[in-house]
Amino acid sequence: MKNFLLLIILVSVFSTSCTERLSLANELACKTIPSLQGTIEKKDFKNKFSIDIPKTWKHKGYYDDYQSSIFAADTIRELSKSFILDIAYKYSVINIDKEFSKEINKENSLNVLKSNMEIFKEKPSYWQVSKGIKNGYVLHEFQHFIQDKTFGYIEVKVEFYGEKMVDERLCEALEIINSIEFN
């Protein structure tokens, strides 16, 4: 009986955590999310957020009076098999609603393929996947805006160049994005 009860508890814990982690990935049709190993926690300069990125990736931090950001990329793989990740905490008030998505897309020169408003880590958020041409290359872009309860928000931007393995790279990016912690 004890083993059966333990099994039920373990299954419910793992299925709950997987469901929470996969909500955004399910919307984007990710079939599996790879498990990242060998990561390092990086904190932004102003200590507003942290994120786990692979140890082998190059990364840089930046800050000014308006934002604090981390820029990271896998420089070992060629660009058409990897992606560029830019996460910034911006000091500005946003309100995630239908008007927000319209306003964001006024400035977007890419075609929006998918978008959604949802709760991410107990915070209102809006994400979109877009496609277009940048500098003569096919570009897929994932943007995610996460409203903070204070004066600010996180903007995540991921760029995928080329047409190969876009879903797989997107799933890998979502795994990294899911490691964001607000401080």
UniProtKB/TrEMBL annotation:
Top-level taxonomic group: Bacteria
Q: What is this protein called?
A: Lipoprotein
